[in-house]
Every structure is written in C-alpha cells, then in structure tokens.
Give the backbone structure.
Amino acid sequence: MTLRQTPFHARTAALSEGQAWRRWAGYVVASAYELSHEREYHAIRSAAALFDVSPLYKYLITGRDAARLLDRVVTRDVGKAKVGQVLYTPWCDPEGKVIDDGTISVLADGRYRMTAADPNLRWLHLNAAGLDVAIEEVSEQTAALSLQGPNARAILQVAAQRDLAALKYFHLTEAKIRGIPVTISRTGYTGDLGYEIWVDAAQALPLWDALIETGTPHGITPAGMLALDVARIEAGLLLIEVDYFSSKHALIEAQKSSPFELGLGWTVALGKESFNGKPALVREKERGPAWQFTGLAVDWESLERLYAEVGLPPRLPTQAWRTSVPVYKGGRQVGYATSGGWSPLLKQYIALAHLEGTFGTAGTAVEMEITVEHHRKRAAARVTKLPFFNPDRKRA
Amino acid sequence: MSAASRWDAIVIGADVNGLVAAHLLARAGRRVLVVDSRKAPEQRVDVGWVPPQVLRDLGIRAPAFYLQADQRDPWITAPLPGGGKLELWRDLGQSTEAIRKLSPADAAKWPEFCTRMRRLAGVLEALYVQPAPDVETREIGELLRMAGLGLHVRRLGKQTVIDLLRILPMSIAELLDDWFENDTLKGVLGAAGVWHLRQGPRAGGTAFNFLHHHVGSPAGVFRPPRSNITQVLTAMPGVEVRWGGSAEAVVLATAGRVTGVRSGSEELVAPLVVSSADPQTTFAPLKPQLDAEFVRAVGNIKSRSIVARGTAQLERPADFKTLCLAPSLDHLERAHDDAKYGRTSARPYVEAVATDGRLDLHVQYAVTIDQTLIASVAAALGVAASQVSLEPQSGHHYHGELTLDQILFMRPVPGWSRYRTPIHGLYLCGPGTHPGGGIAGAAGRNAARVILKDN
Amino acid sequence: MPSTYDAIVIGGGHNGLVTAAYLARAGKKVLVLEKRPRVGGAAVTEEIFPGFKFTMFSYVVSLLRPEIIRDLDLPRHGLHILPLESTVTPMENGDYLAAWGDHDETRRELYRHSPRDAEAYDEYGKLMHHMAHAVRPILGMVPPDPTSFDPRDLMALLRLGKHFRGLGAERLHALVKLMTMSSADFLDEWFETDVLKATKSASGIIGTFLGPRSPGTAYVLLHHYMGELDGVFRAWGFAKGGTGAVSEAIASAARGFGAEIRCDATVARVLVKGGRATGVALENGDEIAAKVVVSGLDPRRTFLELVEERELPGEFISDIKRFKFRGSSGKVNLALDALPSFTCMPGVGRQHRGAFSISPSLEYVERAYDDAKYGEFSRRPYMDIVFPSMIDPGMAPPGKHVMSVFVQYAPYHLNGGWNDAKREAFGDAVVNTIESFAPGLKSHILHRQVITPADIERITGLTEGNIFQGELALHQLFFMRPAAGWAKFRTPVRAYYQCGAGTHPGGGIMGASGRLAALAILGDGA
C-alpha cells in the first residue's frame, strides 16, 4: 500500500459510502463518509461530529530539560504552563518565520506531548544539543479522535462515567472509557465545544466502538475532512500548506510567514529569555508586520448582482476551496485569500485572507475575485475580525 | 564582586596563535591573561611558516636575533629501493643533480616544477596573512581587496592563473604523475600532500595540501620551515600566562554574550575571550545558546585524527636530517586504504626528524595507537620496538582537516571564517580557523586585528 | 551532392547529431560522417541476439536539454521518455532500501531504516533542488576564459560571480561543499543510514575513476536533481526503444532540416591549409570539402589523431595529452527467458519497472573502487540494473526480457590488459554478484553480452572507453574542458570546432555541448 491506514481504518473504511479518501501525512483518511459532506458538517454545529485525527505527528518529550527544549523551539512560554494545560503554538526558524504549528500538552512535570502537522523529530533533536532531554516519536503508537459539537460533553461524560464540566478550555485530564485509559483534552479544530481523545493505538477500535455506542443517542456522526474544513474556516483557524507554508518547504522568501503575519502574535512570548527567531520577531514587532491574516465576508448583494448579470442565481461553494484568490482595493491587488467557502450556519460566504499592511483592519471594504461563468469578476467584501463563529459553549 | 574585571581579554591556549593574539592585544593596551591546561610550556619545535608580518607586528627582529629557524640541508633523505638514498637540497642545482642519477627526464623538469610551485605557494602566502576573502560581502573595501588579489594573481602570468585553477582541486598523485616518473621522488613529495588528511594521494585537494605545506619555504624545499617561535613568544613579557589547571578551560557565556572562562575551579571574568582550542571543544558547553544549524555545522567539521607523533631513540647518530619513508605514491595510497576502513596502516608512512640525538616522528595513518603500529614503525626505521614511543592521540593537530571544503571562507564553519562566533565577545584564533594549521601565528594575528577592529 | 558543404560533422554521436541539426535548421548544408553502420555512438540500441534489443551502452536519459527537445521537435521524431519510478537496493542481510515514486511511501520506507533520515531526506531534497536550479544556467553557458582580459570574458566572469553571490550564503556554501567534497562525506552530514548513503554516492562515481570517499564526487549527486522530465526535476527515464531511439530522433530531426548523414564512412583526417580546416579525408581516400569542420569525437582523437601536431601549439598538445580518460565502466547485457527474483523482494512486481542498485554499503562500493585503483576489475562491483523490456515491451519477444547492467569498476588499464578470457571473467564476476542477490538469475540467461572499456573504445571510438569523453574531475571541467583557453568549442585551427562531451558541460546524454558548439559556429558567421 502506498499510504498507511490509521488505527481506526477498519471502522472508517466500513462506513465509507462514496470511497472518498485523501492523503494526510502519509495516511489515508476519509474526505467524507456519505456521498455529500453536508450532514457531517451540520453535525459539528448541532450535535457531535467524530473525526479520526490520528495522522498528526506526536512527540513525547521528557526529562530534566524538557521544558527548556520546548521553550527554545516554540514561541509560547512553556515553562509557565501548568500540568494539565494545553498550549497552542507555532514555532519558528532563526529568522522568525513559521515552520509549523501544533499543541503542547503538559501531561506531568517534565513530561509533554507535542503535536505537529509536519514531521519535526529531526528539528527537535537538533535543538536538543547539549540538553538533558528524551524525545520519543509516538505518532504511530498514539491514535487520536476529535469529538466536536454541542453534544460532545454529554457524550463523553457518559462514555467516561465522569463529570467533565470542570475540564476547562485547552486543558486536559486522564480518564477511562470502558476501561480504556485515555487522555481527554478540551481542544479541537472547529472553534466549538469539543474534545480530543488520545489513546494507545492498540485500543483504538474498542474506543471507537464505545464512543459510537454511547454517542448514537446523542447524534454522534463520523465526519470527514471536507466537513472539518468548513468548520475550521468559520473558526478562523489556519491550515499549513494552504493558509501558510512551512519555512522549511518555502522555495522563496515570499512564501514564508511570521507568526505576526498569521494573526498569531498572541502566541509570541517576547518576554521569554530566548527562543528560535526571537531577535527577528522583536524587530518585527517594532516595525509592524508586513501582512495581516484576517477574515473576509463577501457581500451578498454584490455576489447576487454578479450572477444576475448572466441570468443565474449565485453559485455557492458548499465545499471549501483551498486555492489562492486575489483580493483588491481601489483597482490594485492588496492581498489574497487562501481558504474560503459558504458557511451554512452563518449563511455567509466567508474566506481567510492575507492582506498587506493596514488593509487588514476590520471593516475595510475590499473586493475578492470570483469567476462567474468563465469570467473573472470582483465581489465586494468586508474585512472581518476572526473568528467568524465563536459560540459561548466553546469555553463554557 | 567588583564590576570591573581584572582583564580585558582571556586567551585560551598558550600555543603560537594564542600567544600571538595575546601579545598583539597587549601591545594595543589591553590587559591579557593566557590560560593553558598543560603543566608547563613544551619544548617543541614549531613546524610552519612564521609570516614576516607576525614578527614585525610583535617587534621580533628575525631571524638571527631571537628567532631561530631550522635550515636543515638536505631537507629530506629517502632510501632508494635498490640501496642508497635520495637527498634533496636547498640548492636547486644540487637537487637536480641528485635527481638526475635516478631519472634524467625528472631532473630536466625539476627546476621548472620548483619555480611553478613556489609561485603558487606565494599566492597562498598572500592569502594567509589576511582574513579569508569574504565572498558574500557588499562592502566596497572588501570587494576592492578581493579584486586586487585577483589582479595580483593575474599579473603573475597566464600560466599561474591556469595552474591555480587547475592544480588546486587536483590530487597530488595526478600532479606528480604529470611531471615525474621516479617513484621515490614522487613518494617524498606526495607525502606532504597527505599530511594530516584522511585522504590518500589520489584524492582531490591533496595538491592544495601539498602547496600549503610548501608555504614559507624556498623553491625546491617541500617541507615547512621549522623554528622556535613559541619559545620566543612564551619568553616575551607583556601578558600573564597561567599554566596548569585541571582540565581544558571552559568558555562561560550567558544569553549569547561571553562572561569569562572557567579554569579548574576558578571563574575568570572578562568581556573578551579568544580561544585557540579546537572549535568543537570551544563550543561544546555553549550548545544550548547556539543556533541548532550552527551546532550541526560545528559537529560536521571533519577532524579525523590519523597522525601519530612520537619519538625514537637511536643507538648511533642518524645519518640523515629528515628521513622520509614513503617509497611511492602507491605506498601512501595503500596506507590510506587501511585508514579508510578504520584500521591503522599495516605499512605506515613514517617521517623522522633528527633532533638532539632523538628522532621526532610523524606517522600516518594511525587510527589506533598500539603495539602493532609501534612495531611497524620500529621495523621501518630499523630500530627496536622498545626504542619507539608514540603519544596517545589528542585530537586533530590542525583542529580540522585542510580539505577543499574546510579552507578559506568555509573554515571553521561556512559563514564564520572571520574569527568571530555567534557568541558576543568570543573569538577563535587557532589552527581550526583560516589559514589552518602549520602557519605559525597567522590566525592569531588575523584574529587580533579583527578583535581590535570590533572592540 | 554539393561540392562544398557548409559544415562537416565528424562522428554521429548524439552531440554531433545535435550540432548538425541546429546548423541545418539555420539553413546550412551539413554532412555527418559516422564510421559505424548506424548513428548514436554510445547511445545505440542494437539487436545483438534475434528478437532482443539491447540499449548497448547508455541506458537511461534525463539530462537531455528541454530546449533541444523543443527546438528540434524531438517528440514528433519519435522521442518518448518513460519514467523510471523506483530504485531498490538489496542489502546483504536480505533487507532492502527502496525509493518509490510516491513521496509518502518513500518517506515511510526510509523511516523504517531511520526516522531522522526520513525527515532529513526532505530537507536534503529541497537543498539539492535549489542547488540544481543554481547550477542549471551553467550547463547552458559557454565557459568564459579566466585568463583573458577580453571584456566579453570579464563580463561573463562578473555575471557568473554575481549569479553565485545571488544564491545567498547558505546555498553558496552548499555549492562549495558539493563541488569539493566526496559524496560519502557530503551525505554523512545529512544521513545515518549506510545503504542510503551508498546508493546515493554510487551515482556520484559513475564513469569516474573515483570512489565514494574521493573528493569531487559530491557534485554528481546534483545530476539526480537536474534531470527534467515534464518540467519536473526527477531522476531518470527510459527512452522507448532505448537510448538508440534518442539518437535516431535527433538524426531524424537533422535530416528533416536537410542535413545529410552518411554511415560506414570513416574520417581519417581533417584537411588543413594555412592553419585553416578545409574539409576531411576519408579512410578510403575520398576528400570532401567544407567551410567548417566539427569534431564530435573525444579530445584525444580530435586533436592528436585527426590533425597533425604541427598545426597545434605545443602547450595545447601537452594539455590534451594530460587530459585524463581512464575508462572505468563496463556493461553486461542479458537476454532472459524470465525475470529474476530478488531475495529481498521475492517475485515479479513493480520493482522490476524501476532500477536495482547493487550498492549495499559504502564499504562495498569503496572496495569495488579499491580493486580498480590497483588495476583489477571489481570482484564485487557496483551495478545499476534496469529491465528495459518491463518499461518498453518492444525490447524483447513477448514473455522474455532484456536486462541492462551498468558496472563500475572495470579499469581500461587492466593489469595485463583486456582479452577474451578477462572479458568473460569480468562478465562472470558481474553475473555471480547479481546471482548472490537474485539466486536463479543464471538459469534464466539465454544470451550474454559483456562490454569492457576496451570494447567501448574499439566499437565507439571513445578513448580508453571513458563514457564522458574525459573524466569529470574538477580540474577538467568548465573553463578547463578540454584545456584552459580552449573551452569555447573552437580549436587552435581556424574553422575547426569541437562539439563532443569532451567540452563543457561534459557527459551524460545532454546534447548541451552539441548545441553550444552549433551556436558558436553560427555566431562566428560560418
């Protein structure tokens, strides 16, 4: 087989009606189980969607200098994080350009699990020179599921036989689901109430079965990447290789981005003594980033008018697109959108975009390119602060 | 704890480069301390050209007054396969005659060979008394300097330019095979091409290494000059030198800035530290403060030590000044073959310098120093094994092989060839930097000039 | 038949054919004279045994310049290059290392050997991609003369300098390393898996008289990334019909533009009058006049055989005499009644559509080199094996196969010289070595053709059997190729040009020399 199968493949393959698969980090995962992703998407916002997120790269970092290594590599202050906390963070090259982004779970004192979209074992080892730390790749040994939606807590509480109301946003706890030891972190990629469940790969299938059984009365729905894509755009969350390129894969300087240019300035702890890229980031903070990462909301009337000109109702992209679309202001291109699509929940055509300098200020009127019946047109749009969707239940 | 430290600069290593750097800083008014982990200064002869600029800057009136140079003649003796020996002399005519007995064709080519090689060595000499050309610079001054160097070379003639471009990347075997036919002659010359390199004479870059070891010697003398420069420097007043200390001095730094040196249990404070030690040792304690890629580059420095040094005691006085036991290029190549696979040469190349009633030995290729090696060295010299003693290996003598990718702006690591390091206030000045080992004091002088410019 | 041609090209190898095609395209009356019954030189496909077509010497393509493919419209003349998607290296312990077409799959395979190497591979690939990109313009450039004060040379040197400085520090340093290091040392900085380093290094020693630990071999690692197939940098491809089809396509293009190609016509010497080439004399005595004569032969033949020494400056003659050839490659072509099954990957499968590399460890390849250094052929040689019939079924009768085995090392200067017995012994060493990785191979061999460097020289005329028309050592490249001051395709004899791989950029089926020579001739106002 060219691609690997995740530990959940026996279950996910059985569910696939349309045989719509795609590759993710060398694995094959479902794009959608049903022939359309629509129902799966709605489950995220109305009940609970279950995603197989096992292909994430995972590293266990332990030892006396574990926090020191992580603090050297990432922009957030790991040393200050408490046991049970989960940090979302990018990490940069020495020039302050983002290599990758992921989470760091503080499992115990001197014990961390780091997730990443790209392989980072070598990078971690290079940065560990002279430090007393052990780095173990556990990508294959650890399977992971993501349960997202308003019913997610209810389902997990039944499955784990525990009250999870006290589990705060971006924190984790150990638990047992039908006797299977799991780590439950209140994290996710949908900007909604949701949890990720980390388990030993050998116990993947029993875990899946347990969740499906307890979750079915609550509307649990296995969902694929197409549904996740729409939700993450609503949540304003970046995707590597789509919204930004790893500086390790960039062929030219223009393909690299700093955390400030990606709206991740809040993750950059300039107060830390030193970390990869700090000097460059200090300088950038002073002069201001060259780009801003923001949301765009396409104006419905404008869209309707463009289609009406050719006698059609507006064509709405129900599947999110991941191509680069120019954004204009005053006849000049001032940026580009990298992800976008129609949000069924918000009833808006939304996009994530990079805009030069001050054009990224919320409220700015811009135009986004749209191809209508083979012709390139521009629809009016407004720069919108991210996220587009931020329900109270996410943090409650 | 006083805020002002007692010294402006601490130099690690009282070797020739460390001492040159220390004295030059002292002459510029700095208070300099030199620390060296050895118990006392060694009574060792320096092998390598001492650039006149070093002597001039230090006010050493050379050569007759303080500096003793070893002008041994013949500069090499090599046994011939049928008996007898080949001796090469400082006088070109005398050498030509000696060679003529072996091969008239080789003798006919000898003078021109010597002239051409001397000219190329001269180009290297010009390069060595300055920091390596900075090929990435945008500074007009530096660009002009490089253009000037290019013009200087071009004015030496078309042949020299072609020689430079052609010979520098070549193997010494190919170069010598192009000129000469006699195996013993080629063995003697070829040996200088593989000194301190884990390569055989057929490897590219050995012609450069050959020229490197010709630097500072007159035409026709293909071994480096010998002197007592370190002794002279050690005796010169102007800097404080501390000997002893339990181990290698350790550089101390905080947040990317040097704070001083730990020698033994004592912490010595200074805003400037200049290390003549090898780069890998210097940077080892500083890894967490250094860029991951820089640490990787330092780790990648090729410094495979394959030279064994030692002495041999003779019953009778030697009937040679310097003896070269490398009967042919193939002998050297086979000796290297062993080292390639991690073994000490079954039939090593041995060079013995007669000094004060003993022989100073240079042996290649030594991967492990054991009785077998001692036995082969003794056999080659015709003495008893008990008369031979070899020192345990202590790292690469040049702190990094002089391969084509580890010279000039690539030495010690690419982009850091100007003696500065990523740690503010920490500089390197040893043979691990440009121009490499065997050029006495040039690195120290170049480094001192950079330091004084920076501070 | 015109009485005077505009140009005569000596040698119908691929470079000579390219030169002829470009000159003919520019309206010149061109005649190509080839001594063998067919064109191609070392890029020929021949039916040595009935029904079995052997791509006799060269066997893969990827460096053929895209501009040549476009300018001469080669696809219309039959050129069709099929991708070679994989390389499998059997290991001595029964395991293997494979590189597949799919990036994820290759990564997983590497991960099996070393997780860190799997990640380093991507970074290494990115760097090499950049390096190949940086070096590519040099392939298409006429080397400037560094000793001349001619403003054109100085400008070219300045442009070159500017190009290199424009790479940025990181890439400039990487380029210096690539040009000076051994492939083993260069790879040691990136990887820990020995079999990976051995397989990659092996591509660095092809056609050379060097081992993986010899400085100067890292440069050839770039060739792996300079190959262009469909605009994508990829490794190697197989021309449908073998490399002979490449030569035939170029010949067809040349004829299409009006060039005349004569086979079985051996040129004995170039006619020179008053320091100027005026035509050629064939072995049979015929004399043919031309305004310009171009030699596609290697430098030794071009200068020391086709013209008299008195026509050339003494220094130049010494330089040419010093130019090293030392062929080190051999070839064994087998006709099989079935495909061999390799112990490490039993059965017949997609692995047979790619290449097998017999390079299980760095020590293995280095020892193969040691044998050659002292005048013997490698007892356990490095080999690059492909099954052309698996990629192009037309190469063998249905159900049967051809196996092309490229071998290092077989020194031209073998102790005691090559003869029939030595050739067979060499062939045996090759087959026995493969048999140790694929038991049963011998039982499937219907026919065997063994080609030594002496055979290469005898058949194609390549001096000392060197497949690159002269070693690709640093001091024999670029403005030194074939001699300082004579690297611009011209020669000391007016109207006499050189267009073979003995000029920049050297060997590999690139066609670049042929094209640059043609442009120089046209530029000189021929």
Q: What stands out?
A: Chain B has three domains: 9-41+229-302+410-454, 86-227, 307-390. Residues 166 and 419 of chain B are 29 Å apart (CA to CA).
